[in-house]
Amino acid sequence: MRPALLALLSMLLTLPLREAWAQGREPIRYAVSTAWSMPYGELRDGVLVQGINQRLGLALAAATHRPLQPVMLPRPRLEAAAQAGEYDLRCHVQPEWTRTPQSYQWSVPLFELTDVLVGRPGIAAPAGLEDLQAGATVATVTGYLYPPMEARFADGRLRRDDGFSEDRSLRKLMLGRNDYAVVNSQDLGWFLKQTPEARLAPWRLPVHRGNYHCAVPLGGRIPAAELLEALQKLRSSGEIERILAQYRQPQWVLVVAATSPIQSLDGDRARELFTGQTRQTADGQAVAQLLLPSGSGRDDFVQRYLGLDLAQWQQQWSRLVFSGRARPPLELSDLAALKNRLLAQPRALGVLDLADVDERLRVLH
User: Fold this and answer.
1) Consecutive H or E run containing 272
2) What is the C-alpha separation between 334 and 167, in angstroms, rounded?
């Protein structure tokens, strides 16, 4: 987005809040972590100019008729600043990410977050964290806690390589400076969209699923009930989903059940499977069923992942079905139903957004 357009958008969003300043309403001191990166937040010259966290803060300010006063803080200082009463609200946080969750009053879960492990090119797909080579380096963010991995970092089975942001973690991985990186799936999807030349291992290993919360420090100046109630209303009204929709682009991955005998799949063979040219993986494993999300999810997968015109893809499958040579992918509108099919049929191959993959499933590509 052009800087002039960003400035105009910011001005338009904050016009209703100027009246709040004039009325003497106490501003919401909003903690902004310098470790944020897009799509959650972009910092320019010390100013938060766009991203999910910025939009959420502005929406909350409008809902409470209070000005928004960003308070820029390094990630490691956020907890001490909360105890010192330096801000009134912190978002993009989970209780398990903090060492003193009792120091805050917590919002309801606002949306789901998934952390995934990504490998540099050439690194084989692990079935779980226990498969990682002892002493392997993992690109991480300074001050971040990674609950499923903390014990391994503490005893040296894995080594942290801290950096400034998840964007930097992925860039270090591209350069081969680390074996792995652990990042949020939303950050990963944004990075791949902005960096089409990025070379990473094709697999993704989900390592933690949690919820995005906002937290009100006990020492804040704004009544916690006012802020938490406003956040609940933003969630119930669908406003948070509308904010997410502006930044979310599905990252389609091919998945099987964790117990599946199908162990590997490259991009070329995946395209052959989903265009009806074959029913087997490159190592001869038979694929019993192909599963797709219906509607816009299917359309986006066909156009972006397969690189095909939707009408041509449908015509191709119609010819194959009419001749009896292939069975088309089963399209399911319900996410839970698609996952259950994968679990019930270990030789089924499905398409999911990376953010929806859990520990019962394995990402092949």
Assistant:
1) helix 267-274
2) 32
Q: How far apart are CA 280 and CA 134, in angstroms?
A: 34
- Least confident range of 127-131, 144-148, 279-283, 339-343: 279-283
Kindly state the DSSP code that residue 89 receives in the 8-state scheme.
Answer: B
What CA–CA distance (Å, rounded) separates 31 from 78? 8
Spatial contact of 16 and 62, defined as CB atoms under 8 Å apart: yes
CA 213 to centroid of chain Cα atoms: 14
d(CA 197, CA 193): 9
How many residues can be counted in the chain? 365
- Identify which of 103, 308, 359, 354 has the alpha carbon closest to the alpha carbon of residue 216: 103
Helix, strand, or coil here: 183?
strand
Highest mean pLDDT among 149-158, 253-262, 331-340, 354-363: 149-158
Give the three-class secondary structure for 11: helix
DSSP state of 316: H
Residue 212 is predicted with a pLDDT of 95
178-227 pLDDT per residue, tens: 999 999 888 888 888 788 778 888 888 888 888 999 999 998 899 999 99
- pLDDT higher than threshold 70 for residue 100: yes
Return the number of other C-beta atoms located less than 10 Å from residue 305's C-beta.
Answer: 19
- Cis peptide upstream of residue 39 (ω within 30 degrees of 0): yes
Single out the residue of 211, 229, 218, 224 nearest to residue 104, CA to CA.
218
| Residue 115 DSSP class | E
Q: What is the pTM of this model?
A: 0.73
Q: Is 30:69 a contact under the CB 8 Å cutoff? A: yes
User: Long-range contacts: 219-224, Cβ < 8 Å, 24+?
Assistant: 219/82, 219/83, 219/84, 219/85, 220/29, 220/85, 220/87, 220/88, 220/89, 221/26, 221/29, 221/85, 221/88, 222/26, 222/28, 222/64, 222/66, 222/88, 222/89, 224/105
What b/e string do you get for 332-354 counting C-beta neighbours within 10 Å, with b at 16 or more? beeeeebbebbbebebbbbbbbb
pLDDT digits (tens, 9 = 90+) for 159-172: 999 998 898 999 99
- Please answer whether residues 5 and 46 qualify as being in contact, where contact means their C-beta atoms are separated by less than 8 angstroms: no
